[in-house]
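Most newcomers find our protein records easier to grasp once they have seen one. To make this concrete, we reproduce a full record directly below:

===
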Amino acid sequence: MKSRKLSSKTMIAVQVLVVVAFCGAYTLGSRDTRQAFNSTFLDQTYYPEVKIDREEPLRISALYDDPSVVTDEELAAVLKQVRPKFPRQHLKPNHVEHALRTWSIHSTFQDPSVVSGAEMCDFLTDHGRYLASWGDEASPLLIDQPQGISIRWGSQVGGSVHHDHWLASLTEAGIHRDAPVFAPAQRNMDINDVIQQSLRDFRLDEREVEWSAMAFGLWIPPVKEWETTDGRTVSFDQLTRRLIRGHKKYGVCVGTHRVYSLMLLVRLDDEFDILSDSARAEAYSYLERVRDLISECQYEDGHWPANWMEGKAALTSTEVIPEYKNVIATGHHLEWLAIAPKELHPPHEQIVKAAKWVINNTTSHTEAEILQKYTFYSHVGNALALWRNTHAAPFWKEWQKTHPYVPDVTAEQDEAIEAPKPTL
C-alpha cells in the first residue's frame, strides 16, 4: 500500500490548528502557568505574586492590662521620653521606623517639634520627602524594581539598617496595603508592591529574618507558603526553624528580636494555622527555654542582662555590659512577654521588677540622651503600653486632654538670646 503524502495546504492547516490550540491553552491557562512558560521558553523573569485578602495588616493584641507592671503616670512619663522629637534635617530611617511601630501612622502631638505619624510615614514612602531631608547627601531609600520597590538597607548613611525592617515597622504601624509609595522613577506603586517584592526576594540564608517573619505573618495568612523569583517555595515552618537555628546569643538586639518574632508566629498560628504541629512545638519549646533562662538571670535591681542566654551563670559573669544593652534585653523581653500566654512567663514579680527598673532608667535620662539610643528605648515605650493593653498613640491622645503641652518659655528665651542679631 502506497503511503500518502500530505499536501502543503494540509500541513499549513495542521500547523495553524496547533498554533490556535496552543494560543487558546496559553490564554486560558492560569497566570502562574503563563509566567512559568515565559520564564522557561522566552527567558522572561518570573514575578510570582501572593494573593493577600486584607487591606490592613493583622494586629497581635496584648493579653493584659496590669497597672502593677506600669501605672498610667509611669507610662505617660516613659512615652514623653520616647516621643519622636527628631530634627527634620537628615532624618534617620531607622529612628523613624522604630518610632512608627511604637506610635503608629495615626499619632499626633501638640508639641510642634515632635514628628507626627503621617509625617514619618510620608518620609519613608515618598522619595520627594526623603530628598527634602537628605538632598544629594544620601542614596535613595526606595529602589525601583521592574515589578515593585525594594528598600536600601545596611550600614550606609540614610538607609534602613535592617532587612525588611522598613516593611515590618510600617506594617505594625497600621499602614494600608494600597497606601501609595513614590519611588524615584515610579509613581504608581503602593505598599502591596513592596510586600510582593519582599516576598519574591526573600532568602532563608539571609543574615536577618526577624522582620521578614513579622511582616509576612501580619499580611499573608491564611497563606502558609509562597514562591520566590528563583522558583523556591518558602513556608512559615521554614521561617520558624530559621529563627530557632543557632545559639540564642545570635540574632539582632542580643537575640531578643527573634524571640518576639517567634511569639508573634505562634499567636498567628492560633488563629490561622500557619504552622505544622511539629514546627509549632519547636517554637513553643524554644520560648519555654527562654522563659526558664530569664527566670534564672534577673539581677536584684530588676534588669535582665544582655547575656541573658547564659541563664544563672550570667549573674556571676565578669563581662562588662554597657547599660544600653541591658535596656535592650529588658525592654525587648517585656515586649514579647506582653503578647505571650502566662505559661510562658517567668514569675510575675520578676516582670514587675523588670518594668520598674526600665521605667526608672528611661525617665532618669535627658531627651538628648534618649535620642542617642532612641531605637532601644522605643521598645520600652511599646512594651509598657502593651502591658496596659493599649498603644502609644491612643493613650497619649487621651493623656494630652488633661495634660496639655506647655511650651518651654525659658528654652525659647535662651534660643532668642543666642540667636545672632541681624546686621543693619
